[in-house]
Fold each of these.
Amino acid sequence: MDAAGWIDRARQVADILAADAVERDRAGAAPRTEVGLLKASGLVTLLGPTQHGGGGQTWDTAYRVIREVARGDGSIGQLLGYHYLWAWAARLVATEEQISAVEELATSTNAFFGGAVNPRDADLTIHDEGDTLVYNGRKSFSTGGVISDLTVLEGVIEGSETHVFAIVPTEQQGIRFAHDWDNLGQRLTESGSVEIKDVRVDWASAAGFVDKQFQPLVYNTLNVPAIQLVFANFYLGIAQGALERAAAYTRENSRAWPYGGDDKGRATEEWYILEGYGELQSKLWADEALLDAVGAEISEVLHAPREQLTERRRGEIAVRIAAAKARIVDDGLDVATKVFELTGARASASAVGLDIFWRNLRTHSLHDPVPYKRREVGRYALLGEIPEPTWYT
């Protein structure tokens, strides 16, 4: 199947999810059925090697797929986007042998990934027992962990500054989820806390280490710009879903305002409603064009030989992604708010469910402060400086 076919399949999945998104959001059950749908559709292994049954697609396509799924359900779009990033974790930091083993395992078993890697918490501690590493600690966020098959762990070896990534089976006694995710939006992402207790990993599975030594590449730092663009794409999908849902409501239910001195027979004839939808659609088309452009840029380097990436190129891509993210946060929240003005008072009823889009976008857009993204862009525009790689840049 080509890229267009995968995007169309994602669109079909989104339509299924959209049909009962509001009801599932209220129920708040772990999204096992939804992840099962993603697995059955083949979207989970979109980036996996074809020789193991994967889609063999690029990140350029993956970003568009995330966007489409989020149009139907923002929570599931986020889960899929995080899964793609964690499934790519081995390729980001591991050795070639480790990459092959992880990709074969994950693709052939249709595995879904979660991650316990929240940098705002204290690092997990790692005790080196010689041939084995033992992880312990707690993370306050572990998106998708509850419904995952594999979990990405990251910690620091005791008495050192050595960070070690490892991929482990989720179903084990040492990984204990608190089931305490109870937020305004993105309610089905299972982003609650997790306790890691005596999870053992062979040194041979420590990602990127050979003889207990890690050889860094600039490519290792692509995890942050890659996932920041994941964010931007499911934000866009949520905003697109809001506009589509509102437009359907206006066509089917909204009534023209009869007291303005310019009476119309239908709400769809009201000039201010037409102007409002035109403004919001124009913003989202512009955001889509920017996201597609930067998606193509980072996809090119994600699929290129890892040794080729320079610090300058990495920084330029990160700045462009920062700009795209800042733009869609502003425009997406504008869309999710103004759709109420275009649909009317009755559209605020809980049964209509227009609030889900604002709640979802507002919740996750607080992940890291957008003003810092604008500052990164400003320093680049004014001084030609690229951001230093951190857990958030």
Amino acid sequence: MEQLKLVAVSAGLSSPSSTRLLADRLAEAAQERLAEQDRKVEVEVIELRDLATAIANNLVTGFPSPTLGAAIDAVTKADGVIAVSPIFTASYSGLFKSFFDLVDPQALTGKPVLVAATGGTARHSLALDHALRPLFAYLRALVVPTAVYAASEDWGSSGDEYTEGLPARIRRAGGELAELMASRPARDESTDEPGEYERQLADLRFD
């Protein structure tokens, strides 16, 4: 059985950052669920803060640096993507959006994507549904049902009788991503052309 590739994109600006920590925890949860199904997965984490200058140069010149090109290629060829952004002014960061603006609009068609975000207060959690989810829905990705938002007070919290704690939400979202990755039709590695399933989804785009 082929090895799957999972790519986590973290748009955290500090080092270390809670955004990177959340990306790592989600990747671990997906990896654990896949291991339960005897599926091997290679995990790669892309730190956008290290590519910020290259992203800006690509936007104005139209040409990616080798490192940025490799990051874009990794996302394009992944079997599943975890996309995590800090929330600024009730939306994803400019760095996060700029990176995905450079990814081919067809590249995420039919690809499982888990969206997640971090912020200082729970009030920004709605950004998952009014900003991140619509972005990837527009790109025709298969957005995982459970999105994960982590406010500062969520770390170390086990939740209460009304709300799941962060660890439980991470496990659920990671498990959903793993299920979508495991059930996704194998891609022909001999060509970069999308399969019939991806082409059919792409035909549904309305620009």
